[in-house]
Amino acid sequence: MNKPAIRIAVLHFSHETVSFLKNDTTLADFIYPGSPASGEALLGAYPKSYMGGFVKVAREFDGVELVGIESPLWPRTGTGSGWITEEAFETFAGKMIAGIKAGAAFDGVYLCLHGAMAVRGIPRPEAELARRVREAVGPKAFISATFDLHGNEDEAFLRYADMAFAVKYFPHYDEYLQGERAARTLVRAIRGDYKPTHVTIRIPVISPTVLQWTGASPWMDLGQRALVWEAREPDTYVNIFFGFPFADVPDVGMTVQVLTNGNPELAERVGRDLAATIWRRREAMLKSADIHSIAKGVALAKQAVAAGATPVVLADHSDRSGYATRLLREIVAQNLSNTLIATIADAGATTRLKAMGAKEGDSFDMEVGGLADESAGEPVRIQGTILKAVEGHGQFWVCIRFGQNNVLILSTYLVQIMEPFALKALVDIDSFDVMAIKSRVHFRRGFDDNGFAKTILLVEPEQPFLGTTRLDGLPYENVDLTKFYPYGSPAFSV
Ligand SMILES: [Zn+2]
Hints:
Strand content: 15-25%
Largest sheet: 9 strands, mixed
Bound molecules: zinc ion
Number of strands: 19
Structural class: alpha/beta
Oligomer: single chain
Strand order of the largest sheet: 11-19-12-18-13-17-16-15-14
Number of helices: 13
């Protein structure tokens, strides 16, 4: 006899909101060809990420039916937009709940989330979504979720949901794996083979994301310790949320969640161990990378080129709009050559260039970038020749050669270059000594972990603009930084 069918509703709602950006993330930003998605389109939306892992494993079990409930995909602005409007949240959350109710009885729900969403008027949006889903499916259904380690989560989420699985690596190599775990554990829970028991511990430490690279200690050691616990204790899962400080929400900072199979003492023991480890290593965590001023970084890049330590990566980790010209301006001022700047976002300029029918060989003389807010700086005039002007990935891309074999890539939106080979379609990546990009840690996967770059320099402006490592320069309204190390002296013991 076949086992009775298991019905699972699948939902997606993800954003990493830089609430200090001036451009809200609106309903329209979530609506574009392919988004919102439902049914198989939703289930197939991110095949190499959380969703792909979840769907693959859930379908390895007999008698599991997945129902893709209409959900928005990532907004077209990526991570380059501010507060999500209440209209956007309510519209999609409303559709999701209506979709769950229309789909009748579900045994389980999978929530594919990020965790660093910031919504006007809703302090804990992921927990609020879980609360509404719980209300719609009733107390007997199980709710399983996946998260980015940049999620800002406190105790609220697991009050309404049963299970959460967050990535352990930054760059986030294990998204698919966490999707797989979310599926297996959800199906087991529905079958009565896993009894989710959890503990959540908040640790009052706040850190800028650029420091959180898990390729180096002590961040690497935290993940390792979590993995050791998972290896030692069957059915134990550990999440360490590093937190996302550029969302001005009440649950910023670090959080540990531990999930066990019906063993609250074990969850408590593992949670305390990790919380104590984090607290003990807090000083080293805040000193894990050197950040240079832009002027110093460009000077160091020049020295590295002279010494033959190329290619050099100059990563302006702090640019959150994509429009920032401060690094470009300094590259021009210090007369760097053989330098790729990827990218400067400028929706106005790319729209005009597209309308003008810009093409290879055209001469170029325009002011680009800047002005999105004070962090972006002033526009910079670039005179050169267009190498390429193409449409792709929902953006218009223009490559301009200028100076001594320098190339600037203009894009419509913020682009975080994670690996150089992604640029091959646009430029000859081997012809550059220096690559100036806008990324904090994600670039490590393609520039550092594989040995590509010989020199890596992280830079930020001298002023504490919105992507700064000096969080006390940010205009928080919902966070009291003095309650967090290193900005105050919070008491903490486990
Ligand atoms: Zn992340």
